[in-house]
Amino acid sequence: MTSRSDLAARILDATFAEVAEHGLAALTVEAVAVRAGTSRATLYRHVPGGREELIARTIEREVERFFGAVMDSVPLPSAGVVDHVAAIVVAAQRLLGEHDVLQRLLVEEADAIVPSLATVQPLVASGLTHHLVATLGDAAGRGELEPDVDVDQAGDHAARLLLSYVGSPGSWDLDDPDEARRLVRDRILAGVVASG
After folding, report:
1. What pLDDT, on a 0 to 100 scale, did the predictor assign at position 167?
2. DSSP β-bridge partners for residue 145
3. Would you say 85 and 158 are in contact if contact means Cβ atoms under 8 Å apart?
4. Distance between CA atoms of 140 and 184, rounded to whole angstroms?
5. What distances in angstroms separate CA 127 from CA 64, 69, 122, 142, one per listed residue?
6. What is the 8-class DSSP label of residue 195?
7. How far apart are CA 148 and CA 83, in angstroms?
8. Taking Cα atoms as reference points, which of 71, 73, 2, 69 lies closest to residue 42?
9. pLDDT at site 2
10. How far is CA 81 from CA 67, 166, 168, in A?
11. Interatomic CA distance for residues 133 and 138, integer angstroms
C-alpha cells in the first residue's frame, strides 16, 4: 500500500515532469494523475485545489530543493561571513542558470510562471532572511561585524540585496568567487562587516 507522503511525492514529481515535457500552459490534472499512476479522484483528495494547487506545491518544493542544493554547496558560516554569503551568491546564480525547466519557462511562458513565482518569493525571502540573521548573529559573536549591528535588520536587508543581485547581477561577474566576495563585502554587507 502506498503511503500518503509517497503518493504526494509522486504527484509532485509527475507535475514537474509534465511541465518539463509539455510546458505550464499544457498542464492538466488528468495528465498528472496518469503520470503519477493514480486516478483524478484520488489526486483531488490529495490536492483539492486542482491545477493551481499542483503548480503552487510543485514550485514550493522546487524552491526548497534549490535552496537545499545552494546550502549543500557552500562552506559553513564559521568559515567567515563574507565567504559564506559570497558562496551563497555564486551557488544560487550557478544553480539558477542550470535549472533548465525554469529557464525555459521564463523565456517561453513568463506570463504563466511569473505570478506563481511571485507568490513564492516572500517565502524565499523569509527563509533566506532567517538564515542570514542566524549567520550574522554567529559572526557578531566571532567579532566579524561592526559593533552594535542590528542583526535582524542587517539580515533582512542582506537577504533582499542578495536576491536582487542573484536575479539581476548587473556588471558583477558572479561566476568569479573573488568578485562575489567583493560584492558581499562592499554592497550586500557594507557597513555590517568589521573593517580590517
Report:
1. 80
2. 193
3. yes
4. 16
5. 10, 14, 9, 23
6. P
7. 22
8. 2
9. 56
10. 18, 18, 22
11. 9
* pLDDT for res 98: 81
What is the structure's pLDDT at 124?
A: 82
* 10-residue averages of pLDDT along the chain (196 residues): 79 93 91 96 94 88 85 88 95 83 70 70 86 96 95 96 89 93 96 88
For 26, 74, 137, 191, the CA distances from 36, given in Å and listed in that order, are 16, 34, 44, 51
The reported pLDDT for the residue numbered 1 is: 47
Domains of the chain (ranges; CATH) run: 1-48 (1.10.10.60), 56-188 (1.10.357)
Do the Cβ atoms of 38 and 11 come closer than 8 Å? yes
Q: What is the pLDDT of residue 25?
A: 85
Contact 106, 24 (CB under 8 A): no
End-to-end CA distance of the chain: 61
Three-state DSSP class for 145? strand
Quick check: pTM over 0.90?
no
